[in-house]
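Collaborator request log, item 7. Partner lab (contact: R.S.) asked for a structural prediction of FAD-binding domain-containing protein to inform their binding assays.
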Amino acid sequence: MRVRNCGQDRAVVIAGGGPTGMMLAGELALAGVDVAVVERRKDRQVIGQRAGGLHCRTIEVLDQRGIADRFLAAGQAMQVAGFAQIRLDISDFPTPHPYGLALWQNDIERLLADWVEELAVPVHRATDVTGLVQDEGGVDVELSDGRALRAQYLVGCDGGRSRVRKAAGIDFPGWDPTTSYLLAQVELRDEPPWGIHRDAIGIHGLDRQNDGEPVRVMVTERQLGPSTEPTLDDLSEALKAVYGTDFGIHCPTSISRFTDMTRQAAAYRNRRVLLAGDAAHVHHPAGGQGLNTGVQDAVNLGWKLAEVVNGYAPETLLDTYHTERHPVAAGVLHTTMAQIALLRTDDRTKALHDNVSDLLSMDQPRKLYAARMSGLDIHYDLGDGHPLLGRRMPDLELVIGTGPVRMFTLLHDARPVLVTFGDLDHADAAGWADRLTLVAARYDGNWELPVMGAVSAPNAVLIRPDGYVAWVGHGSADGLRDALTSWFGPPSLANPTAR
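Returned to partner:
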């Protein structure tokens, strides 16, 4: 049964205004796509602690859009990469941001929402997606207030209980929860033992970053908690089971429950409906990769969806979103489950944890796992060739004309970039000049990748809007036209203007 359309057609509707949804909205707006966000919360309501920071690759992604400084000013740069609470130093990695950022999700969402507002993206708050109907031309999106929006595409960024995923009939296989945790921000009457505490029940912690702020509490529940919203009484009972007292908790700012449930969508796309972030994958927050994976989902999907909506590329380009991002999230789930196994508090697991800690203190294992946890090791399978192919483009300081230009600044507009070095010209890219930034540059330094180290200097690189290398030239332009056509559609009649 078709729903009543309220006359507000959009190219793309995004369900969910969290970090993933807002990042995707910004990506689409930069590409000139008519996009709107539907968000169930009203007035950017406080959501509790949830994610607590950004990993290196996510900071790089924000830097590629020219907004990283906003986040760096609001948070605290520090070494946040870790595996099963074993810290992994990335200060020697070849990146402009060899660190992570301690910053609560509330602040991350606020800064992304400010950016999206600057890009004039409409956000329908206090509204939820309740259903959808697809046809060959688009999607009718049912809203909780009785209205409907018509969109060419709908993207579900609406969390682990995604209504969009369920309405699209996409399976969500995985592992059921075995344990649950309460997270809260509360006031305490009594002084608690600060810091991390481990016992037979699990891992717990109490922390207050600044005087006058609420105390942040994490406590493992003795038994798996229900799926209902937790109460202050639930938190009191869990604290008493661990500490023998609840420290006089009162005035909660937020209380939430999370588990070690691990699931991933069987498909990230069903015709005109796509999934990103927690709607596509959920897992325990060990390692802090959930929010980061979602934001990077958005950056991978955004330019591809824009290419299709703007009529440059065929709809089949959207299939590469699942092909590239599903294995990345599968790896995150695999790594997260391994961490949870290592965080058990029995003596045998503690011994195993100590041995893994010793192993990760060695240079090569440390680099391998640090790159994995910080997102710097992502490698999309784009075929054989130069080591750069399918990997993030380093933020080189190029010389263009007579002045230095950082590589990441060339990606601020979310357009693909072709950079040539030496004698290789732009002739083969002439037909894509209307959608491609063409740059003739010089770079005299070393080319380095995390873990891999030095790589040979190419004559040219084609960089996708998400910062990953789609083609590498070795003295000729062989394969460039094929790469341009594959990723950005057939050529037009526009003439190039090299910078």
